[in-house]
Amino acid sequence: MPTQTPVSDRPERIDPEALAADYDEERPSRRLSPRTNRFVNLWCFGVALFVLRQVFRPLELGSQYYLVYFLALTLPMAFLCYRARVRRKRPADAATGSAAGGADGAQAGEAHAGQAKAGETKAGEAKAVARKDDPGVVNWVLAGLALVIGLYPVLPLPEFAFGGGGYEGFLDRQGSLLILDVISGLVLLLLVLEATRRTTGLVLPAVCLMFLGYMYYGGYLPLSWKISHPGIDIDQIVNALYNEASGFFGVPLDVAATYIVLFTIYGAVLDRMGAGRFFVEFSFSLFRKSGSAPGRTVATSGFLLGSVSGSGTATAVTLGSFAWPILKRAGYPKEAAGGMLAASGIGAILSPPTMGAAAFIIAEYLQVSYLQVLGWAIIPTLLYYLGIFLAVEIDARRFGARRVDLDIGSPLRLLLQGGYHFISLGVIVFFLAIDVPPFNAVVYAMGVAAFFGLVEALLGRSPADGAPGSTSAPEDGTAGSEPGRKELLNGFGKRLYAALAAGVRSGVPVIAVCAAAGVITSTIAKTGLGQTLADALVQMAAALAPTEGSVLVLTTLFCAAGILVLGLAVPVTASFILSWVIIGPALITLGAGGPEVAMFIFYYAVLSEVSPPTALAAVASAAITGGRVIPTMGQACKYTLPAFLAPLAFVVSDNGSLLLTRGSFVDVLGATVVCAGAVAALAVVTTGWMFGPTGRVERVLCVPAALLLLYLEPLSIAIGVGLLVLAVVIHLGARRRNSRPDVAQAGAV
Fold first, then answer.
1. Mean pLDDT score of the chain, rounded to an integer?
2. For residues 173 and 170, what is the distance between their CA atoms, to the nearest angstrom?
3. C-beta atoms surrounding 423 within 10 Å
4. Is 362 exposed, middle or buried (0-12, 13-18, 19+ CB in 10 A)?
5. What is the DSSP string of 286-298?
6. pLDDT-derived band of residue 537, with 50, 70 and 90 as boundaries?
């Protein structure tokens, strides 16, 4: 019998921001004290205004001049917002959040009874933790040094024998830097590597040091080695990093300073204006009539929340903090629910219109519009969510999921109240369609979102404290009262201020990664290492391939494995950049197109977040549900399997470009239908269900059927369809035999 979700199932005990800080590799991890937090927010707010000004009134001395200022103003935040040592377990808050997600229904009463007592000390503990977690003297010194060294190229110093001369003088010395230039460049290099280590771990800085060592010591390698080169001295290395377009101020940082930071600010504005809450509630209102409704709404909510957070792990955590109690009441096991949350969160990065940061880098590397990249992602996104929805429907039947009624209004009522949140997303697409630059389009969308937030404030409807899907709490102190117009406007102003600050602050890790990526791109440009490694990869595949035609297939499999392994240790953005400069040329050499290779690398870089043994999105989801980590990873792989295999079709076949809408409408539609059949076959393989439980024969037949369908060649499609039809016939025959009365009676006996 349908029941209402009790208030005690609401997950106030779970702190999405804190959990994301623990498990997301691109989120701040310090718990700053109020005073330090106010300073950081004020600084980030100023940077946000500077970035917005650049959109409409660019600095006269050009893009690199702006990038110097941008890096100098944002790099210090890495030392104030991130710890110098390895991340530690959060104290009471983390334990409380995980325990809340993992409490079984039978123990819920005791858990809720203890919650009141725990709440009495929670505020005091949080303040104590924040004081201990504030940056110390060394961190403040490093932050100040990052600011001064970052601004050195543009400081109006008089020119003297050792350096100075301002920006014009600095550029004039390209290729022949003075001693102060070299020292400043080396210090900036160390600061960038340290900032990257704090935000993403040791692996990427270690890779950068390996590339630096290769640049310097390349002349000591045997001449017979293909990777040998004359070697580059320290002055020229610093010049390449500090005073050329391929170094710190290259394409990756340019993308971070124009596209990425604006979209993170936009997401923060949406969140603070209540879009997160609306997206979750609207999704839950759409599918509340059946047992599979909770699973469907998780997938839909993840897609919509992606425009708010821009991070797969953060989306999974935010969604899970509200959705897990509902999934639990519907009858989903902890591990299955965690896998579903992780898969839905990752889908947010893969889906238009606000994809992951690497999508903007694709547009810059290929010199195409961002709208075109969004177009390439449409069909893969549909296939991804088709796989999730099929798995959701099947799991609902396997687990006997129950209907859960929620105290949420009808979709029409919610749409009338908050449907304006969709308008800003439409504004982005509209302006992109009429060839308005993406950074202008997102600022216009930001303005639309803020305008409707202002209207809501004037009407007395502000985002509620603890609203599902919203990672922000009200800061105006008006909850539970009838505030006047002045208080409402004050609350709106505070939310907008917090949104601009949070947008810049959440982008700091990506900025550090993009600056560090300049070391790698500069090494590739100076030594030609990327093409050399790509040729070696192709030669290895050719030596192992049984036929000439299978070289591309084998190379693609090697590349996929390499990207996944790389993504286990570095963030998505860094993984894409590294893979593009090393692995990309190998596939392009074998005839694959640039868009197909870029999207292939992008998908596998993103999927590393659900790939064992790290799978940060799955680990964070398990922390919420209380499930076992490894089985949760397995469930996440089950839901995302189509996304692991579909990108292979982009490059192994000439028809793979059809999945990126590069072809006639009829051909694109045909390829989409064929791949949808492959996704359905994969769902049968992973869930063991077709029209009912399947036997081993049907599942075995569906494996080659799916692979052959994804190859997208006429002969392979024909064989794949035949195998899939055979599996269906065998399954239906087995069901008919099992449904006969004599067989049923025999089974009962």
1. 79
2. 5
3. 14
4. buried
5. HS-SSTTHHHHHH
6. confident
Q: What H or E segment, with its residue span, contains residue 308?
A: helix 293-309
Give the span between the Cα atoms of 202 and 609, in whole angstroms.
17
220, 231 contact by CB (below 8 A): yes
H or E stretch at 172: helix 166-172
The region that residue 661 occupies, defined by phi over 0 for left and psi between -120 and 50 for alpha, beta otherwise, is left
Number of C-beta neighbours around residue 740 at 10 A: 10
Pair 242, 181: CB distance under 8 Å? yes
Burial of 415 (0-12, 13-18, 19+ CB in 10 A): middle
Rounded Cα distance, 511 and 491, in Å: 30
> In this structure, what are the phi and psi dihedrals at residue 4, rounded to the nearest 5 degrees?
-80, 145
Q: Give me the helices (H) in 528-628, please.
A: 529-544, 551-567, 572-582, 584-589, 594-607, 616-625
User: Cα(79)–Cα(60) distance, rounded to whole angstroms?
Assistant: 30
pLDDT tens by residue, 625-660: 888 888 888 888 888 887 788 888 888 888 888 999
Pick from 264, 341, 279, 269: which is nearest to 467 by CA? Answer: 279
Note the pTM of the prediction, 2 decimals.
Answer: 0.78
Inform me whether the pLDDT recorded for 145 exceeds 50.
yes
List all residues 6 or more positions away from 719 whose beta carbon is below 8 Å from its beta carbon: 708
Of 336, 327, 322, 341, the closest CA to residue 395 belongs to 336
Take residue 127 and report the two structure tokens written for it: 């303040």
Nearest to 366 by CA among 533, 49, 93, 588: 588
First CA to last CA distance, the chain: 32
What is residue 726's predicted lDDT score, i.e. its pLDDT?
Answer: 93
Number of other residues whose CB lies within 10 A of the CB of residue 21: 21
What is the reported pLDDT for 114?
41
